[in-house]
Amino acid sequence: MKRVRLTITLRKDLVDSLDRHADGVNIRNRSHAIEALLSDTLSRKVNKAVILAADQGITFRPFTYEMPKAMLPVKGRPLLEHIIARLRKYDIRDISISVGYLKEKIESYFGNGSKFGVHIDYVAQEKKNVGTGGALKQFQLRLIKDEPFFLIYADVLTDINYTDFARFSSEHKSDIGALALTTTATPELWGVVKLQGDKIIEFVEKPAQNSARSHLISAGIFLFTPRIFSYIPKNKKVSLEKDVLPDLVKKHSLPGYVLQNQWYDISTPAVYEKVLKEWK
């Protein structure tokens, strides 16, 4: 993105605050700190998140005979609570959760969200296995027409910076949204993404082994505008990764935000065991 050189004079205490804000990783220096703070102030804030938490977690049986996958404990708290706490940290407090299997376990634990510092409402999946797109489609009438929102899969655990992701999406001005990406040594297990600069030019869900053209994959976190709903058919099973995103990236400019953070897709007991050891 094109930048313009400026010369400004600031109070020393503000400069000291900028220096403390620059961590050398997410914020590189004073100029970057000023840019980030201005962007946060001037960019449209994202206050809404949708979490898909209806997965039965069949691979986690017998544990998931008693609880939905999203309630698996991690460091003394359910997986879903870690996701909600992360959202609250970035002041994203309006949360809708898609529930299905053993939904009463989630609803009774979190209630309306007030004891977690957020507001939570629920949408129950009446049919099994409607796909990620089908689950998202159920929220169409609950979202404000032009309000952007985060979409998060409830089996993804990461220390993502949601403010930085929202800033990235705002800078790229996509009318559909942006995808969070991460890297892996086994990309064929996920939706593989090919980038050109920051633009996603190809999305292939679970390609044949050794045929993946990139080690970048979808991280299971998205920032969408409600325009995404016009690409999801009604009343049928729809996978975002198989049925929507591959064509969408060909027709529209969708940017890819590459995570520099911890990231786990808790899809198997082996990954869950790794999370229990490594998550901080």
From TrEMBL:
Pfam families registered for this protein in UniProt = NTP_transferase (PF00483)
CDD domains named in the record: NTP_transferase, RHH_NikR_HicB-like
Q: Known InterPro entries for this protein?
A: Mannose-1P_guanyltransferase, NTP_transferase_dom, Nucleotide-diphossugar_trans
Q: Where is the Nucleotidyl transferase domain?
A: 48-274
User: What domain of life?
Assistant: Bacteria
Give the range the annotation lists for the signal sequence: none
PANTHER family annotated for this entry?
SUGAR-1-PHOSPHATE GUANYL TRANSFERASE
- From the Swiss-Prot or TrEMBL record, give the protein name: Nucleotidyl transferase domain-containing protein
